[in-house]
Amino acid sequence: MSAWRAPGSEILGFQNPARLSRAEFRVCMLIAEGAGNAEICAALSLSESTVRAHVRTICIKTGSTDRDALLAQLGRRGAASKRPDAPTQAS
Prior knowledge:
Elements: H1 22-32, H2 37-44, H3 48-62, H4 67-73
């Protein structure tokens, strides 16, 4: 049985995007669009804990240390910090 490959997965730039499950890929694409966890929950009818688990797994599978690193890997560096509802970091 061949591995599932998401349509458009080549845009992710991962060495092996087929390692993401379909649900993880959907979450990843929403992250790439700048969606926060609450928006992902609403869009995919998932609980907050499920979304957090998917984000953790995506980071592990892609070698990203956190959401910002994942965004950078997706070519969307800083997109999360530009969102009006994104938490700010103290200097």
